[in-house]
Write a structure and sequence with these properties.
Elements: E1 23-28, E2 33-36, E3 39-43, E4 48-51, E5 57-64, E6 71-77, E7 83-88, H1 93-110, H2 113-119, E8 123-132, E9 138-148, E10 152-159, E11 162-169, E12 172-179, H3 186-198, H4 201-209, E13 214-215, E14 221-225, E15 229-235, E16 241-248, E17 254-264, E18 267-276, E19 284-293, H5 294-297
Parallel strand pairs: 1-7
Antiparallel strand pairs: 1-4, 2-3, 2-5, 5-6, 8-9, 8-19, 9-10, 10-11, 11-12, 13-14, 14-15, 15-16, 16-17, 17-18, 18-19
Length: about 300
């Protein structure tokens, strides 16, 4: 008889998988849904979710939240060692647009709402204009101004050795100087008058209301990009604008800093408006000592 062949030996058992320590997923600024290795693990509670029983090695982690961009990340887990992985969620496009509109509404409210902005449409006041000369020195000119509705402004600069009157009306900028300032001060008076008018906050806000807005990714600034020009502004804790970067076309951007706000009836008006290039000292500084709304006075 032919003997029965012996049974083949059993194959060796595969080694037991190495089990990693617990993985804790932390989400901010709000709770998120967690998926690990394509397995739904549920939602974080108070920003945290702990997953046990994962094999050591690279694991794929995904986090989701409504309105926010989802994040996918490979996390290296080690045997027996717990790990915490932090995820900071960025708002998606729609939410950033909604947040920007809410931020602009906060600003308008801080200015007294639409009624407050209307009070700043027709104003007069006094203060000074400091500008940087070509030799680097600073020149200070006392100033009074009368701004009417729209792009209409009259300024007067009175110095010991002369006087300059500037105006902007129907897009035409003019200046006329007397005394020792004649023929030398016209350019400064024209430029100063135009700059002071161009960045009146009440006019900027009225323009932004009708434009698309988006919140920056760091949530600290609101942007209003357009085909030809671009506004980027920063809002303080009090709801007032502190910083504005404006650029048009290929021209270098200009930075406007607003501070020392004055109370004008129901509204607010910056008592200091500083202008210059980003990352440089301001070349023009307007300091306002007092400002009055003529619309309220005439009611």
């Amino acid at each position: 008889m032919i003997p029965v062949p012996p049974a083949p030996p059993e194959p060796p058992k595969p080694p037991e998988p190495k089990i990693a320590g617990a993985l804790t997923v932390a989400c901010e600024p709000l709770d998120c849904v967690v998926v690990v290795q394509d397995k739904y693990e549920g939602r974080t509670a108070q920003g945290r979710k702990t997953i046990n029983g994962l094999e050591a090695g690279a694991v794929n982690v995904e986090v989701f939240a409504d309105g926010y961009e989802h994040i996918t990340r490979s996390v290296q887990m080690e045997e027996g060692k717990p790990r915490e992985e932090n995820f900071s969620l960025n708002p998606g496009t729609v939410l950033r647009q909604q947040n920007a509109k809410a931020a602009l509404l906060k600003v308008i409210t801080a200015f007294g709402g639409t009624d407050g902005l209307a009070e700043l449409a027709d104003i007069e006041g006094s203060g000074s204009m400091v500008w940087t000369a070509s030799n680097g020195g600073a020149e200070q000119w006392p100033m009074t101004f009368n701004k009417r509705v729209g792009r209409d402004l009259v300024t007067t600069f009175k110095l010991r050795d002369g006087q300059c009157n500037g105006s902007v009306a129907a897009k035409v900028v003019k200046a006329e100087c007397r005394g020792e300032l004649k023929n030398s001060g016209e350019k400064i008076a024209e430029q100063g008058t135009l700059l002071f008018l161009s960045y009146q906050l009440q006019d900027v806000l009225n323009a932004l209301v009708a434009r698309p807005l988006t919140m920056s990714e760091d949530q600290g600034r609101v942007e209003s990009p357009a085909s030809q020009d671009n506004y980027v502004f920063t809002i303080g804790k009090d709801g007032l604008i502190t910083d504005l970067i404006y650029s048009i076309g290929e021209e270098p951007p200009i930075r406007i800093q607003y501070s020392n706000y004055l109370t004008v009836n129901r509204s607010r008006y910056p008592g200091r408006i500083a202008m210059g290039r980003p990352n440089a000292e301001p070349a023009w500084v307007f300091t306002i000592n007092n400002v009055r709304s003529k619309l309220v006075r005439n009611q």
